[in-house]
Amino acid sequence: MVRSQYGVPLARFEKSQGDFATATDLEAEKIILGVLQAARPEDVVVGEESGRTGSGRPERVWLVDPLCGTLNYAVRSMLVSVNVALRTGEEVAVAASADPFTDEVFWTDGAHAFVRRNGEDHQLMPSAQSRLVEVNLDPPFPNAPAFRAVRLLAEPGFIETFRLRVVSTTLAVAWVAAGRRAAYVTDGQLQDSVHFASGIALCLAAGCVVTGIHGQPLHTGAGGLVVAADQETHSILLKLIGNQFATEVVPESYCA
Asked: Which of 6, 17, 50, 87 is the 20 to 30 A CA-CA neighbour of 70?
């Protein structure tokens, strides 16, 4: 569906300021939900566009993001992904992030992580060699003004060590597991996020370092996400993020 509708004029459905869905988002989600409901009719499904459906056991929840990178797609950029994850209890057991245009499917069974290409599976191998760090600059920013991801770009330690990339799709989280990015940084509360659940599961299974923005366990405290290919990269990013909290910006209304 995503491939077939690419480049076609699409109706837009406003969701909130600056955010919208296209007809492709809706149709792709409908197809995914149809597959899941046919195979697992008693499971709960949470879709980005349709919300929560099903009244089955709450310990089995599918998280579906039918088109991550809608704005990219709407302006004919091929940087998008289709994300599906299954949470069983507190953990995401299996997940997949598909790139519709390269025909790659990054997937995990919870123990190992692979990319399926041309019908063959290849194990994902994280690597920080590229030094490319993906930074999500899209809202919300729950830890502002103390922390804003965009301020990382002004940190001398960041520009001396890394190179920034912003593709505005969570496909880039899977790329950390695949060795195509050294790290990914975002603010936000990501528990049960249809956008991030699959990418996080892939990175954990591939052996990446995955924490919140303070280095705390994921989905606790201030939230956020720092996922890195190795401990050294992760430590550098935590130090740079910590610099922001150490020099917290005081809103003008609080100034004497």
From this structure: 87
